[in-house]
Amino acid sequence: MKIGELAKKSGLSAHTLRFYEKQGLIKVNNRSESNYRIYNNADLDTAKFIKRCRDMGFSLEEVEVFLSIRSDRPAHICADAKNITAIKITEVEDKISELQQILIALHKLSDACCGGNESAELCSIIDALDNDKEQDKTEA
Amino acid sequence: MKIGELAKKSGLSAHTLRFYEKQGLIKVNNRSESNYRIYNNADLDTAKFIKRCRDMGFSLEEVEVFLSIRSDRPAHICADAKNITAIKITEVEDKISELQQILIALHKLSDACCGGNESAELCSIIDALDNDKEQDKTEA
DNA sequence: ATAGACTTTAGAGTAGACTCTAAGGTCAAC
DNA sequence: GTTGACCTTAGAGTCTACTCTAAAGTCTAT
Ligand SMILES: [Zn+2]
Ligand SMILES: [Zn+2]
Ligand SMILES: [Zn+2]
Ligand SMILES: [Zn+2]
To answer: Would you say A88 and A57 are in contact if contact means Cβ atoms under 8 Å apart?
Structure first.
């Protein structure tokens, strides 16, 4: 199949597939007489593999490691794969915590403000962003 | 005070302060004879204001809006501030949901893998990334 | 044979928010 | 009077992962 078909079947764009190739994630073994990239089902599996990794939040660098494990499993150990996953879990958990802290702060900010058409002269959002003093009052 | 002191007191680097100035977020009114930027306490408050906005996840573009509300409150209404905040809340909530989905998938991936020093020939992480089939089995 | 869809390449552009560089000027202290 | 910390500028570089462009060649169907 040509790149357009691979794109459709893998869910990656042709641009992205060429980009991954340039990055060394995908190798293309076959070219047509007219120099078109020709892919087989194994290439489709690889493309899908990469997409699944990306969808789970792995960086291209991490995907590369997974690909190398996949391409020669006996040369790797389970710990190789699990460590990357564990690190990613920590990263995602940390990011979630950070966002939850932010969310709490945003709600606090939002809840105190009337959000109406009145002048912002007394707006508690601006007040809260403007200084460190506790001011847990809500606009009248 | 000069930029180094403002940096220390605001928690932003001198580079960042100059960058914000170039972006139009900060105006510097005073220069010393030797052309050094001279800041006052109002400038410090503005720098802190920006930092607080950034810490709450607002983009520089959003910070600009907050700054303009702050600089002329009567010309704005509470809704101006609250809308930005509400949108940000939605964004953060969406991002958290997305990360939680990813986290669940990562745990599923991780839990099935022994993570040991054995060959990755049967590694369930690679298996799971490699195809769509359900395979909720754990490595022996 | 001609339109329209597809493919090729190298390389530039995008996003957001910094971060750093080079080459020079200024200032306080010893 | 010199060291060393600080300041100035324009502009380039960083990061990640694409995304797009231009100009050319190829394929399929009518
Ligand atoms: Zn109000
Ligand atoms: Zn308000
Ligand atoms: Zn195992
Ligand atoms: Zn395993």
So the answer is: yes
